[in-house]
Amino acid sequence: MRQPKGFIIEGKEHFVCKLNKSLYGLKQSPRQWNKRFDEFMTRIKFKRSNFDNCVYFKFASYHNFVILLIYVDDILIASNNKDETGKVKADLKREFEMKDLGGAKRILGIEIKRDRDKKLLFLSQEMYLKKVLNRFGRSDAKPFSTPLSQ
Description:
It is a single chain. This protein is an alpha+beta fold and 150 residues long. It has 2 domains: 29-102, no CATH class; 105-141, no CATH class. The protein contains 3 helices and 7 strands, in the order H-E-E-E-E-H-E-E-E-H. It has a 4-stranded antiparallel β-sheet, covered by helices on one side. The radius of gyration is 23 Å and the shape is flat. 4% of the residues are buried.
């Protein structure tokens, strides 16, 4: 990294700056961020999934679990215990600058709907499918029922 304008020392113009910390926008920045996040999650007793590096999980007790999904700068936390979710959010807020956007309604193009009374969760990609149909000029195609096993 070259010396910034206004900080060049006469006679040492050919010197370069040593980075003690990765800067946003550099090639290694995403890797450094991931490394820092992974170290933090390990420190708070989460385990990284062997199958997907963006999934972390923690079994707080025999009956309580927390699953954390991360994609770039979006995080989705799922748990069967609100207190555990609150603890994870508090830990994340202490370590990182973040905003709590409340209950998830959509992530990665997947719409999330809940029926808390019946304890049901619905996932839908209707918007994504409409976008794909529009892209290929098939938005006027007639729907067709596909049988599903129940």
